[in-house]
Design brief:
mainly alpha; 0% strand; single chain; 6 helices
Length: 156
């Protein structure tokens, strides 16, 4: 009986190791996960526009945001001190608000400003960007930030 107790206590004391933050893997996941989920939902519900948007206006921006946020967080291999000392939730919330806000402005620009000020006609695809861009950006930013923070150590 004591041997079992020792084994259990050793397992609890062992530090958890996580895979290192690898940017290309995060970007690939940021593209594939929403493309598969939204694409499947589009096929199952019979919404052809959602199935097409899954690989374009949903997964594409998600991968771009994952790359930009991941690159910014890594900061050339030396993370900014404040990104490792600020609480994880606060860092994630701040980045999500900033990135989703920028994506919402880009979506508005594409859907409203471009058709009004250029020869590009207003289409349903452009209208989708008002929702697709900020949602994709918020999800990608959240996942990449939390994943990155789980692989960094706070400076002492």
């Amino acid at each position: 009986m004591p041997a079992t107790k020792d084994r259990a206590s050793r397992n609890r004391a062992a530090p958890r190791t996580s895979r290192p933050f690898t940017l290309w893997r995060e970007v690939l996941t940021a593209y594939a996960a929403p493309a598969l989920m939204a694409g499947t939902a589009g096929v199952v519900t019979g919404q052809q526009d959602l199935a097409v948007a899954a690989c374009t206006s949903i997964a594409g921006p998600s991968a771009v945001v994952a790359f930009l946020v991941g690159t910014w967080l890594r900061h050339g291999g030396q993370p900014r001190r404040w990104t490792t000392t600020v609480p994880r939730v606060a860092l994630t919330a701040a980045l999500v608000i900033a990135v989703a806000g920028a994506a919402a402005l880009l979506g508005w620009f594409a859907a409203q400003w471009l058709p009004a000020h250029s020869p590009i006609p207003s289409t349903p695809w452009l209208e989708r960007l008002r929702i697709d861009l900020p949602v994709s950006a918020a999800l990608a930013t959240t996942i990449v930030t939390l994943r990155w923070r789980s692989t960094t150590t706070s400076p002492a």
